[in-house]
Amino acid sequence: MDPILDVQDIHTFIGQYHILQGVSVQVQEGSITALLGRNGAGKTTTLKSIIGLTPAVKGKVFYQGQEIQDMHSFDIASLGIGFVPEHRAIFRDLSVEENLKIAERTKGDLDRKREMIFTLFPDLKRLIHLGGANLSGGQQQMLAIARSLVADNHLLLIDEPSEGLAPVLIEKMITAIQTLSSESTIVLVEQNFLVASQLAEYYVIIEEGQSVKSGKMQDLIEDSETIHRYLGAA
Amino acid sequence: MKNNLRKDLPRWLTLLALLVFFVVAARGMETKDWVITLLRGLSVGSVTFLVASGFSLIFGLLDVLNMAHGTVFMLGAYIAWTVYVRPDTFVDLLTPTLLLLSGFTLSTVWKRLVRILKQKGNWLVIVRWAGLAVGIAAMIYILPRYPITIWDVGNYSQSPVTYSYLADQGLINLPQGLPFEEISPMAAVIGLMAASLLTAFSLSTFNSRSQGATSLSWKDFIVYVILFGLGVAALIFNDSLTSFLDGLDTTWLFLIALSVGVMVGVLLGSVMESTLIRPLYSRPIYQLMLTLGLSAIGMEAVRAIWGRPEFVMPKPSLFAGVGDGCPATSLADLWTNHCSTIMLFDGRIRVYNEIFIPLVGIIVLVGIWILLQRSRLGMIIRAGVQDREMVEALGINVQRVFNTVFAMGVGLAVLGGGLAAPSMGLSNAMGETLILNALIALAIGGLTNFPGAALGSLLVGLLQQVIIKYGAIGIPIPFTEIVFKPTPPLVPASTVLLMVFVLLILPNGLLGRKE
After folding, report:
1. Domain residue ranges of chain B, discontinuous segments joined by +
2. Contact A102 B398 (CB under 8 A)
3. What is the pLDDT of residues B207-225, one digit of tens each?
4. pTM of this prediction?
5. Interface contact B395, partner A, CB < 8 A
6. B272-321: per-residue pLDDT in tens?
7. For A42, A91, A147, B453, which has the most beta carbons within 10 A of its beta carbon?
8. Structural domain for A68, as ranges
9. ipTM score over 0.90, yes or no
């Protein structure tokens, strides 16, 4: 089967720094793929290069067979790719409702998805008129994910969903992402290997801007040597 | 909550201090004086606000300090004056402008064409430069030969100053329209159309990043046909349109002048953003130099076209009545006699300057507020001020929003210029004074905060008028015989002092938030 997302040997600069020096990622439709690696390895930049925020200068990115690396971010997103950035980048000056509403790509998107979003994140229903700045960290993270669900996205790029969350909330987050994966394909950046290993079917390890290893998560869990070498965790 | 209050304490104290200052200042005046000072402050504040709000919207969303904003304000005044006092020139200019613009409405067609040419190899480069060369050559050939009845800046009897003087006397003296001599009307229309299509296409090829799916839309063609048709119609009905505008009541003509100004401003803003500002995003120093340069160029261009001396713009008839029943003593009088002044607390209030301008200021304030809080565009602007990238990653064409906001900001400044022209007169320096006031107002209110822009502008306007008033009545210094009269140079100085005072206590301005 052709992968839904095929990142082929991309190179990305941020300013004068050569951050990605050959990253390749293949993502199968309907799966969850985790990008693993140490801090500063280039995982977040990989996601941003896919969505076009830090465009790749070399290499190709195919989404559903279409070459997208030279397109504007907003055109890439409009193909059906949702992006959940790290640090829960929700809009603080907008209410929860507006934070969702702004993600509409066609009129009425939110009304169609409202039910689904509130079943997934019941807390948001009660906070709907609150300002984004007044939410707790966990609520912001949920809102950030919910925001990526408003439009019809087939691929979700989720950056560090468990970062800074209390263990109880991490559990909730895992359940939510698992529920989502029945509908869409997910690429996940996750520092917390326990979370990543629970969620993902596939993994790609990125080390110093290069993708060095990829495969099935199941195999990685049994391969403690690789884990130790690249992720520094046991 | 308590914590919040403590954090906001300096803000409340500063606001209180300002309030006390103005109350004390008002107590030192007679009733009619402080009423008039208040209204004049509102008036100056409104004009400042029109410039400051656009500046702040642009800076908040695009991170561009548009130093040309004052020049745009001045340009607005001159454009409004031209339409108002010389409708014939305006009508003559209409045809070439509309024809040249029309080609740029077909952007989706050009995109499609670019894509086809890209597949054919190197043709694109050849077609691009050839198209640009031919298009510009056609413009250079046709435009100077196109008959436009314009004044001669060097000739006193037909300089803008003379026209402005005559108009102030109630005479609008239009010269005979010029006939087509060196070029036939047909050739001019076809030539301009071709020039427009060629340049529009060539310029669109420079957009290097490929676009998503673009479908040809009938809407573009309809807009094209409308613009083209209007241009040709303006040519055919040139004389009757001119005499119609000439015979129109000046209130309507003034409205037309303002709308034309705003349209030109919006267009100018849109072109400025897409051609000059866009390549320089994330290079703030270059932007600053660019906009400063543009401001100098704009000023010289205005000097070259309209000449150096200051001139006046007569007030529209609705606010120009004198004689029987004027100054009005009641609203009913005002309405029936269209008086230029009204008596309030035994003081003479100029209706246009001190009532109409503040009214427009308030309407614009409310309008923008509703736009920001209630519309989707406003939502995107508020979100974009915080995090542009995320807005883009949601699939929103931020470039288009940037363009709209820049155009809107420039449009507001142009509106301000047109509105201020009848009250403060036209001069080449009017933009510089105003941009300075606007910057000070923004520093006081908070640079990217919209209500802050309004509050800052109001404070600047009020403070200036208070100082001007005390320049006339004087401040008695206690325990001495001395009466201190603030001199005119103290007027701008006082606003700078206020800014320093506010910024020392609140580095982000009165309503600004910590960055």
Report:
1. 2-505
2. no
3. 655 555 566 778 888 999 9
4. 0.88
5. yes
6. 998 888 888 878 899 899 999 999 999 999 988 888 888 888 888 888 77
7. B453
8. 5-87+151-231
9. no
